[in-house]
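Homework help board

Subject: predicted structure for assignment chain

Our instructor gave us this sequence and asked us to write out the predicted structure in token form, then describe one feature. I got the tokens but I'm not sure how to describe them. Can anyone check?
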Amino acid sequence: MTVESFPNAWHAVVDHLRDAGVSVLFGLPGDDLEALCALEKAGMRMVLCRDQRNAVCMAAGYAIQSGRPGVCVVGKGPATANAVGGLLEARSAGAPVVVLAGGTAADRRGSGAFQELEQIPLVTPVVKWAHRIDHADRVVPAVEKAFLLAGSGAPGPVYLEIPDHLAHVPVSRFRAWSPPALVGATAVSGTGPAVAALEASRRPILLVGGGMRHRNGDGVLESFADTAGAAVFSTASGRGTASEDHPLFCGLAGLYCPEAAAELWRTTDLVVAVGTALEETATYGWDGAIGAETPVVQVNSDPGGLSTEYGGLRVVGDGADVLRAWTRALASKPRDESWPAAIERCRADVRAQAEDRLARMTAGDGLHVAEVLAAIDAVAPPSRILVQENGLQDMWSYFYPYHVCRTRGGSLVPSEQTTLGFGAAAAAGARLAAPDRPVIAFVGDGAFATVRSELSALRREGVGVVYVVLRNGGYGWLHAQVTSRGLDHRLHPFAADEEEQPEGAVVREKSQLEDALRDALATCEHGGGPAIVHIDVQLTDTPPGITGLDGDFPGHANEI
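My token output:
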């Protein structure tokens, strides 16, 4: 029997991280710095953050972009409490994040110890699994289980607490580390009621969710759409999974559906939803026919991710495997050419409306957000990754074709929780996960403020993110609602009147835009750390259909 001994739990955990192929961690560790001692001895990279929530968001961005677990180290008590916001976002996004937290020593619990807190009940609602290790013999199986649960099934965050007393006792490993093997692909039949529904459909829509990220390497989504003759839509989190240059791709669904594509949703006879829980933003505006007269066939690897709000068949299985089987089964299906023709007409109308609106903006005064997106498309390579927030002005990027995701994995957005600042922090993780691709964070000034404290760390680590900051003075979404409700802005100043002197380039004219973006991209490409481009925008510059703001959701100009 081979026995390997470690001076304490942190050294054992770091040994597992290295064995599992973890190359970078994020966080702000506890005061004893035992985690840093173990990481430095192992020669592992640690991005030291100034805020625990930002650290979890960075780890989530890394996980979403790479498909591998992102690892975060935080302290105990208020440090763990501050990480909860990031964990909420990671859970909603299905990001495999492993949070390693400190904790009060077993012999000090209940004594009023410094920063003592019952952390397990605090984090349990926002993670897949929360566990505290209380004995050195439990370190090896606990850390293996954390990685197994984070990445298998429906991915998500896990929380592992390493109390202070385990930093002072040796830990032994009596066997080799076991890899976090995933469950093998489930065999899927090409027969049954789902295939029968597909064969009978003449006007299908394929809706692609974030659960299909990293599952379309062989183009199974496009192959299925071609065979079934389906219009392709994406949820916000599923963007960058299916090719947006494909002749059947029509944009995002629900809240972000292009105006001219709404007709497809009104006339479809079958919706196939793969890798999505059919959250409210993805289904916003669906009329009563969808899920009633028009069936919805759902495919999800996690039964908990299947919605019961809509009628139709529900399939538990790997989305890629299911679609491959269905594609083979539908190979001889006759094509109804009227539906592809309708799809092409809608696509042409979508493009024409966007081109007309953009042309009017270009000819007019002032700088518009849609023009910023067009400039990014003009100067940034197709391999770029656009990391988004979900504020008032940056929401333009959710509307196809004002922003077109040119390559797979080229989009990263907040989950349904839309935690303020998630995209601003997650962009750093995305850059480390894809160091050979430009990463552009498209954020409002309110979201950017949450990550300012991390800029020095990103410079030190050479994390080259281009921050395109849309300056409207603060929280544009809330400011707009103050206006719509007739409230006094002097009492509720969500947008500041005074102008700050920002760090980085400031763009106020159309003629400055492309050069400023090129300079920022060049700075990041040559290892200069983050580059910031501030762009003044108007609070009235809202995306098409985003009018009549009312609470969480705006009134939609074109109800589907």
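Reply (TA_rk): Your tokens look well-formed. For the description, you could write something like this. The longest helix spans residues 338-363. That's the kind of observation they're looking for.
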